[in-house]
Amino acid sequence: MIGKKMQDALNRQINAELYSGYLYQSMSAYYQSINLPGFANWFWVQMQEETAHSQIIYNHLVDRGGRVHLLPIEEPPFEWPDARQPLEDSYQHEQKVTAMIGNLVNLAIEERDHAANSMLQWFVNEQVEEEKNVSGLVEQLKYAEGAPAGILMLDRELGARVFTPPAILTAGG
Ligand code: FEO
């Protein structure tokens, strides 16, 4: 059975993951509005990943006899000044999420909750990927700026991204 403090913190993290999904879905809609469907697809897949992240924590709570409590999701930003800004913002956002995961690991250690700590290690590794992917894209977009053909090429490439559910979910884990 999971402790109340850890349960509450994980419920807040479910909310944070769902907010991330909401933010990326809003970014996806922004890219649709400026006719970059590949970027829109990339952020749509990001949204699917965030939903999966919330499900991993949800499953953990259920598996440990905890109670899932879904909290209100804040409204995400709606407009950005140019095609690069959502990527810059999502890089900042992922760094915040990394700090949240770090705080949860600290709490799991304080609470001597080894099961939560083990589950959270998946997120520790995932955040390394998340930050790397989005910061890589920010850099690529900088190269392409001022060269519309470069942006369109990148858009085609990002249009090919597909969502793959994390193994931790498909394995029933
Ligand atoms: Fe759930 Fe993008 O971190």
Explain what the structure shows.
This protein has 173 residues and is mostly helical. The protein has a single domain, classed as Ferritin (Up-down Bundle), CATH 1.20.1260. It is built from 6 helices and no strands. The protein has helices at 4-33, 37-63, 85-110, 114-144, 148-158, 167-170. It starts with a helix and ends with a helix. The mean pLDDT is 96. It binds MU-OXO-diiron. Residues 17, 20, 50, 53, 94, 97, 130 line the site of MU-OXO-diiron.
Reported by name, the CATH topology is Ferritin
Largest sheet, described in full?
none
- Quaternary state, please? single chain
Q: How confident overall, as mean pLDDT?
A: 96
In total, the number of strands is 0
Using the alpha-carbon principal axes, give the shape: elongated
CATH class: Mainly Alpha
Small molecules bound: MU-OXO-diiron
| Count of distinct structural domains | 1
Protein traits:
mainly alpha; single chain; 75% helix; Ferritin; 173 residues; 0% strand; binds MU-OXO-diiron
Write a concise synopsis of the structure shown.
By secondary structure, the protein is mainly alpha-helical.
Describe the secondary-structure layout.
Blueprint (H helix, E strand, L loop, with lengths): L3 H30 L3 H27 L21 H26 L3 H31 L3 H11 L8 H4 L3
Helix pairs in contact: 1-2, 1-3, 2-5, 3-4, 4-5
